[in-house]
């Protein structure tokens, strides 16, 4: 492993960057306002020795829930995900150790204000409360301006967005920040983080393959990216994003530590060139934005139902919420994003319809069969 060159930052009592150990984190998958369920998630992650626990907050009711949870877990190191509501920053900052904002979500509110004004608002809240910041750039929700300017190279759009936001924080005199550049494609994660690290080797990086999906494939996709980057000295904290039942969420931590241990001891897993040439199922790891707990079960059912198509080069995305679901299914051949009672089915960027949870698998199978026929002329018998 090459030594890391990043500066050190503080997330509460935790130090990341430089020669500090690579921190392993995860995220509560429950509705934040469901206090018992979220407390159970925190207990599971604490027991698994998570260095940082991330919780999503999207309303003032979520903030109130966060306060109550903090009373029960005073010593946990928490990161909060602001989702689309950056205005909550000063309300949540007193209760957490790090604030994560997505540059691609800042345009939603107060369109009369500039992005810089909104970033300053977040920075002021973080500075006043001693919080770190993560600039979280995501492939499925790239800032529309960067998406338009870099149509021919989406990776460069992500990198340029991250670099520009770093410059803003630097100019505001705020240095206690890190960056993440995430995609569901391991190769794109590797490319984006290499490009960013070359330009800003001083900034700590949070690594992750977003929507890696179900084990074991999700673990393999994540391992591919981490083995390449961490061995090059890139990466200061990691998240393994797996689609798991809530009671098994601690597996994200144990898998992350196993991968890091293997890398440090020189154990690398070779991956055949054709590993992702067949059926590729992308699924998000679930979080408090998920409005129906059937999402994880649906992802598992999709994988089982499509086993007959594993030899065909198809990408199916199964997303759990309306925040990232619509955008993050655009690049898939077929995409499902889940609402409270209906599942929305897409073919690329085209919306095909909305179906009940007990109807969607049959409709998805029809679309899978049709795509196979269009591309191959026939569906081989299973």
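^ Assign residues to that structure.
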């Amino acid at each position: 492993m090459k030594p890391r060159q990043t500066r050190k930052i503080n997330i509460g009592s935790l130090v990341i960057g430089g020669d500090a150990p690579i921190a392993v984190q995860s995220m509560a998958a429950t509705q934040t306002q469901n206090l018992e369920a979220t407390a159970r998630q925190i207990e599971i992650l604490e027991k698994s020795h998570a260095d940082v626990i991330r919780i999503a907050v999207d309303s003032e009711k979520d903030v109130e829930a966060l306060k109550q949870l903090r009373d029960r877990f005073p010593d946990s190191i928490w990161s909060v995900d602001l989702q689309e509501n950056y205005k909550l920053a000063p309300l949540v900052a007193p209760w957490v150790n790090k604030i994560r904002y997505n540059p691609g979500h800042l345009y939603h509110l107060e369109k009369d204000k500039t992005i810089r004004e909104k970033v300053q608002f977040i920075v002021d809240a973080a500075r006043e409360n001693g919080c770190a910041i993560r600039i979280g750039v995501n492939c499925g929700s790239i800032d529309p301006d960067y998406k338009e300017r870099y149509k021919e190279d989406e990776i460069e759009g992500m990198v340029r967005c991250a670099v520009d936001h770093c410059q803003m924080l630097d100019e505001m005199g705020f240095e206690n920040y890190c960056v993440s550049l995430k995609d569901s494609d391991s190769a794109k994660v590797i490319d984006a983080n290499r490009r960013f690290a070359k330009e800003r080797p001083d900034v700590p990086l949070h690594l992750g393959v977003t929507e890696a999906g179900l084990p074991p494939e999700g673990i393999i996709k994540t391992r591919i990216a981490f083995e390449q980057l961490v061995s090059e000295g890139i990466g200061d904290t990691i998240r393994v994003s797996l689609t798991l039942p809530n009671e098994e969420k601690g597996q994200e931590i144990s898998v992350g530590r196993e991968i890091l241990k293997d890398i440090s001891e020189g154990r690398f897993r070779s991956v055949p060139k054709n590993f992702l040439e067949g059926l590729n199922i992308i699924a998000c790891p679930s979080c408090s934005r998920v409005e129906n707990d059937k999402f994880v079960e649906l992802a598992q059912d999709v994988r089982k139902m499509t086993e007959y198509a594993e030899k065909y080069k198809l990408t199916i995305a199964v997303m759990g919420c309306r925040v990232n679901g619509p955008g993050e299914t655009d690049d898939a051949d077929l995409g499902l994003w889940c609402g409270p009672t209906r599942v929305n089915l897409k073919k690329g960027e085209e919306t095909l319809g909305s179906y009940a949870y007990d109807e969607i698998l049959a409709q998805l199978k029809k679309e899978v069969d049709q795509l196979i026929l269009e591309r191959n002329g026939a569906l081989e018998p299973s």
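The two ends are 45 Å apart (CA to CA).
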